[in-house]
Amino acid sequence: MTPTRAVRPVKGGRRRSRRRADMPLLGGVRPPIALLCVLVLALAGLTAQVLGPAGEQAVPQAVLSSQRHFAEDGAIALRASIDERVTDLNRTAAALNAGPPVKPERVLSDLGKTYQKWTGTTVLDLESGKVLAARGETIPLGWLDKDVLTGDTALKPRMVRLETGDVRLMTMAVLDFEDRPQQLLVASNSLSVPAINLGQFRSMAVVATGGEILATAGFEQSEALNSDQERKELGFLQKQMSGLSAKAARETEQDPVSAREPGSRGYPGVSGTLVGGSYNGRVATAGYASLSSADPEEKKSVGAGLGLTVVALLPVVQQEGAAADRELYGLLAAGALVVLGLLAAAVLWVTVQRPLLRLFLESRRLARGDLTRPVDVPRWGEAARIGSALERLRAQLGGPADDPGGRQRVKGRFGVRGPLALTAVLLLLWCVPVGLLLNRTDDSVSIPASMVADQRDRTDLVADRVRRALNEAQADLVSTSRLIAPDDADAARALLEETLREHTRYEALYLLDEDGEVVARAGEEPRAGFADADELPLVRVAGKGEKKPVVQAGAPLPDHKGMTLVGEVRVEFLNSLLKRPGLGEVRVVDSKTQTIAASDGFLAFEDLPRDALTDLVQAGSVHVGAGPVENGLLIREGRGTTVAAAAPFSGGGVAADIGWTVVSWQNAKDFQITPYEREDRSVLAGLLGLALIVVCLGWLYLVVARPMRALAAGAEKLADGDLKSVLYPRYQDEVGAVVRSLELLRQQLQARKQTQARRLAEPEAGVRGR
Questions:
Q1: How do residues 244-296 score in pLDDT, each as one tens digit?
Q2: What are phi and psi of 715, to 5 degrees?
Q3: Transmembrane ranges (predicted)?
Q4: What does the DSSP assignment read for 109-140?
Q5: Each residue of 630-655: pLDDT tens digit?
Q6: Pairing of strands 585-589, 595-598
Q7: How far is the C-alpha of 177 from the C-alpha of 665, rounded, in Å?
Q8: Could you give the CA distance from residue 267 to residue 580 in angstroms, rounded to a whole number?
Q9: Nearest of 409, 453, 194 to residue 316 by alpha carbon
Q10: From CA 104, how far away is CA 117, in angstroms rounded?
Q11: Cα(263)–Cα(271) distance, rounded to whole angstroms?
């Protein structure tokens, strides 16, 4: 019989294995259970924090984000306005230089008729400095010097302060006619707030580097107030605008990447939000945005290089503090998770970890040769099957048969998978209610009135932007039409091709005669005809039944009756004007509410997706007072709430009367409003709980449950007499240690069998020899 090793008894009659140091530290059954406990406690702490009122602001984050988006829209409008004015002046000068000499008075007259965008224009002789012609406000010339006209910064736009204290942007271009001295064309622009609808109570400012306010808008209506209370509030707002503008100017001096706030992706410049003081229950909130090029890689934007910042200020009603029981909800949810998590960990410890560690110790004891006492067989599952096999192996090695019942086979259907499933159910009892039932919202959630107003005002701003773009497209055609010589088709084609290269808004330019025949063209083939340009409107849409609408702008040729220059505006260009963060889905529809352009994909001339949106567009098109007005609406359907707005084209230009409307809508759940944020946090907590279940229990299944099933099958085969199959440990953990012990037992049984066979063969040989 194989000698046994002595085992030192310890207090309580239990034995301590000297091989306990061989147990793995990072593998086996204990790390996933420990990780489960750690993650449960971490998730409980996170739940107590995010489901309670901690960290809630006096102003909803949705309102602050809306102010930032409003400031970004204002900055885009101001930059586009500045760049368009500079581009128009340079293009006009280039066109004049390519033609015959024109008198200075005629230059300013044609410029004023084509573009009504400059506060003053002047033509002066560069050699003598004499003013040859002037229109509009008087432009001071004291700032003109050698540095302005020569060097690397020659003819760059300059900001100049007038004697009245107002600041003007001076734009210059050289007129170089043949056989004439060079002339300088100077145009002044006011750096005023973009002509956009600010809505009620909002004010906006254009701020220079250093925090100097160059222009403001929105205070004019307030200045007409008479009561002392209203004047005090006006003084408070003006003081807040001054202080917040200085802060915004400092913030916009940072690099756009380092200054980026979470959620502000989509705007290439520096933008953000500020919160000022409070007065009479209202908090001053501000959004700011620096003027930035539409393309960060493009450095040609004049407006982006002026160092200007747009600040939008809106006083909002201070949000009431959260209910006191909100913190209790978070603590109760966290406490329930701790209880269920610890209960799940206890189940795993009792049913998985403890039996496996017992098998580890018992297999070690048998491998060392201690066969004196029976194996402590677990009660069920793979552990019971392995323990029963160990007891049978102990008996086969010569141990006393003190526990006949232990030799019987144990069958288990679920095994370790049962405790894992029970643990998953315990944790799901917390994850499912928290993720699907806690903090659920419906259509009764209160949406701040400022969000509806901002949706309406920003939609009106987009409508104004699209209208101005169409007006600009038609004005470009008017400017080009003055330079076309229809009798020379080659020259006309060359001019159209050059114009097409300069203006990316067009996909085709062509000149039509009085019979509608194409005289010259550039770009794509004309996709639609164009009726007499004398019939309004000069901006129209065609192509119904095709894949894309055909948006056309036309300009009759002066002194050539019946001839029209037509430009087909790319629908993609209009789509790009509609894409604004925080505005949802935006579409341009015609008078029949059929889609012409959209921020997302669309079908040409398709109807709006909801009847409520159609009604909103039709209501906004009704003339009230001077004309149609923009409208905002809350649409509550089922459990959802939608914020929608419609803004008909209004204002000036040829595109004002074409009957188009910009309509936008978005799900209120996209707003960062406290009830929706709580619902999102609850869903996130439930998802994190599910991730916890998958990670920890999946780990246990891979490293414990599946190897134990294979180990139980191998142990039973060995106990049934299969001594040829070698047992290889795959993991350096408890299961692997049991496998190594079984392999030692297999080798001992094999050696014992060989020894018995030799003993039986020796007497037989002795008898034959006699």
A1: 999 998 888 876 656 555 444 567 788 888 998 888 878 899 999 988 766 54
A2: -65, -40
A3: 328-352, 419-438, 683-704
A4: HHHHHH----SEEEEEETTT--EEEEEESPPP
A5: 788 888 877 778 899 999 988 778 88
A6: antiparallel
A7: 53
A8: 9
A9: 453
A10: 18
A11: 11
Residues 683-734 pLDDT 10s: 999 999 999 999 999 999 988 888 888 888 989 899 888 888 888 888 788 8
Identity of the residue numbered 380 = W
Dihedral over alpha carbons 113, 115, 119, 123 (to 10 degrees)? -70
Secondary element (H or E) of residue 480: helix 449-481
Q: Is 307 left (phi over 0), alpha (psi -120 to 50) or beta?
A: left
Helix, coil or strand: residue 58? coil
* Cβ contact 606:594 at 8 Å: yes
Residue written as tokens 């619902």?
Answer: 679
- The CA-CA-CA angle for residues 373, 374, 378, to 5°, reads 140
- Amino acid in the structure at residue 272: G
Taking the C-alpha atoms of residue 306 and residue 209, their distance in angstroms, rounded to an integer, is 9
Q: 185-189, 373-377, 537-541: which range is least confident on average?
A: 537-541
Phi, psi of 553 (to 5 degrees): -125, 140
Give 666's strand partners.
643
Pairing of strands 518-523, 506-512: antiparallel
> Is the backbone of residue 614 left (phi > 0), alpha (psi -120 to 50) or beta?
alpha
Three-state SS at 433: helix
CA distance 447 to 445: 6
Helix axis angle for 706-719 and 734-769, nearest 10°, is: 10
Question: Sign of the C-alpha dihedral, residues 465, 471, 474, 478?
Answer: negative
Distance (Å, rounded) from C-alpha 179 to C-alpha 271?
51
Exposed/middle/buried for residue 530 (C-beta within 10 Å: 0-12, 13-18, 19+): buried
Distance between CA atoms of 76 and 289, rounded to whole angstroms? 9
The span from the CA of 548 to the CA of 71, in Å, is 33
- In one-letter notation, the amino acid at residue 607 is D
Helix locations, 256-405, DSSP H: 325-348, 354-367, 381-396
Q: How distant, in Å, are the alpha carbons of 86, 231, 366, 381, 750 from that of 712?
A: 83, 87, 17, 9, 20
Cα angle 458, 463, 464; round to 5 = 95
DSSP per residue, 314-342: EEEEPPPPPPTHHHHHHHHHHHHHHHHHH
Give the torsion sign (CA, 386, 390, 391, 395): positive
Pairing of strands 282-290, 271-279: antiparallel
Give the closest residue to 451 by CA, choosing from 222, 221, 676, 225: 676
CB-CB contact of 675 with 441 (8 Å):
yes
**Kind plus residue range of the DSSP H or E element containing 70:** helix 61-98
How far CA 39 is from CA of 36, 348, 681, 701, in Å, comes to 5, 15, 17, 18
Of the candidates 451, 443, 450, 439, the residue with the CA atom closest to the CA atom of residue 675: 439
Between 115 and 353, residue with greater pLDDT: 353
Burial class of residue 116 in the structure, from the number of CB atoms within 10 Å of its CB (0-12 exposed, 13-18 middle, 19+ buried): exposed
DSSP for 546-588 reads SSS-EEEEEEEPTTSTT-EEEEEE-HHHHHHHH--TTS-EEEE
Helix and strand totals (H; E) in the chain = 16, 20
User: Left if phi > 0, otherwise alpha if psi is -120 to 50, otherwise beta: which for 733?
Assistant: beta
Please list, in sequence order, all residues whose beta carbon lies within 8 angstroms of the beta carbon of residue 356, skipping any fewer than 6 positions away.
29, 383, 704, 708, 734, 735, 738
